[in-house]
Amino acid sequence: MGNFRIIHADIYTPLGNEAVKGTAMGRLHSIKDGEVEITDGIISYVGPTRSDVDSPAVDAMGRVVLPGFVDSHTHLVFGGYRPEEFMWRMRGDSYMSIMERGGGIVNTMKATREASSDELEEKTRRFIDRMAEMGVTTVEGKSGYGLDVETEMKQLEVMERINNDPERKVDIATTYLGAHAVPPEYKDRAEEYIDMMINDVLPEVKKRSLAENCDVFCEKGVFSVEQSRRLLNAAMRLGFGIKIHADEIVTTGGAELAGELKALSADHLLHASDNGIKAMADNGVVATLLPLTAFTLREPYARGREMIDSGCAVALATDLNPGSCCSGSIPLTFALACIYMGLSVEEAITAMTLNGAAAIGCAASIGSIETGKLGDLVMLDSDTPAILPYYTGMNSVAMTVKRGKVTYRNN
Ligand code: NIG
Ligand code: FE
CATH homologous superfamily of domain 70-359? Predict the structure, then answer.
């Protein structure tokens, strides 16, 4: 695979193999005039630029180099789009009222069932190209638009096919989200749907290594705390990491459940209670915040500042999906996190790198610039990391490097 070197870089990175909690998120390790060397896809040197090595190198000319971004919450494999629902919401309909009248997730379920694997793969690859341009080197991808065995598998297989491509620009961490909605064929039989997932789908997904993690939409009117607990306990017994869509629309107790089960992450958390925040902090649950979704749903932002000050490890992700938030914008995520949730630029960087990696169970191999980790880097077109939120909603990435290969270069 060969070597990649970048020299004269202003390097900023969190350190370690686990999520950084609380205000320590704001303390990045920095190296002025630094160098990173990647050998066969793995970081083999980080430190001051060496003058005694003369292998070819990219000259960063003092620009900022960070770990590749980890977008740890997306629903990137789906059929169709739902622009009409977006317009209904602009006129005042709520996300839940659209879901209750048969739109929402079930709308995309129909389109995803109809789509061929090739169609889904091509669409997913287009998203991945855009992600690489914005500095993403790992993305989490959920199933959850099939809600039947065949289509859930189809979504997971599309991600597996992309991961098997040696030229892929982004690695996909896969999550089974069969519990995204109760499918029409199980109407009023949510318990039976959960039994089916526990008995038929989860063991098969595990056997075929199609997903690393298991997620549930724990929300009033979708899956209750009790139902979520039952499913996630079964998933844990099979060896899945667990994640929860928690307290997105109303306070449901999802953050508390995440603490009780020591989940990898609880996500959204717009309406997380004080007890829920404490439960996450006490139990090492990554609080994954998705400010683009609050923005597009016109909801109040999650209490990111308070969560960090309470000792939580916070991650940031986009939530790219066809419904609540049809955006995978990394620049806008940084801007909203800093402007509206009170994160410092350094905290937001930790949230988009190491803490995102921890939220998908990958902090030992990605998320920081340290020897032995994957050679995933992003270079900004600036000598200050402040460009990330300051250049509001616009891309400041000059180069993205995945496993030592350049996947995007702007100049
Ligand atoms: O994270 N809330 C549940 N799931 C997605 C939305 C999915 C959709 O609307 O298609 C979310 O917001
Ligand atoms: Fe989501």
Answer: Metal-dependent hydrolases (3.20.20.140)
Q: How far apart are CA 378 and CA 6, in angstroms?
A: 11
List pocket residues of ligand 1, CB cut-off 6 Å: 75, 104-105, 108, 217, 245, 248, 293, 319, 321-325
C-alpha 168/C-alpha 94 separation (Å) is 38
Enter the DSSP assignment of 371: T
Distance 60 CA to ligand 2 centre (A): 36
Fold annotation for 3-67+368-409 = Urease, subunit C; domain 1 (2.30.40)
Contact assessment for residue 351 and residue 289, using Cβ atoms and an 8 Å cutoff: yes
Residue range 288-323, pLDDT digits in tens: 999 999 999 999 999 999 999 999 999 999 999 999
Site of tokens 């990137």:
76
Cα distance between residue 178 and residue 211, in whole Å? 11
> pTM of the predicted model, to two decimals?
0.98
**pLDDT tens, position by position, 191-228:** 999 999 999 999 999 999 999 999 999 999 999 999 99
CA distance 51 to 59: 13
Q: Which residues of 175-185 are buried (b: 16+ CB within 10 A; e: fewer)?
A: bbbbbbbbbee
Spatial CA neighbour of 213 closest among 242, 178, 244, 246: 242
Could you give the residue range(s) of every CATH 3.20.20.140 domain in the chain? 70-359
Residue nearest to ligand 1 atom 5, measured at CA: 324
Residue closest by Cα to atom 12 of ligand 1: 324
CA of 407 to the centre of ligand 2 (A): 26
Ligand 1, atom 3, lies closest to the CA of 217
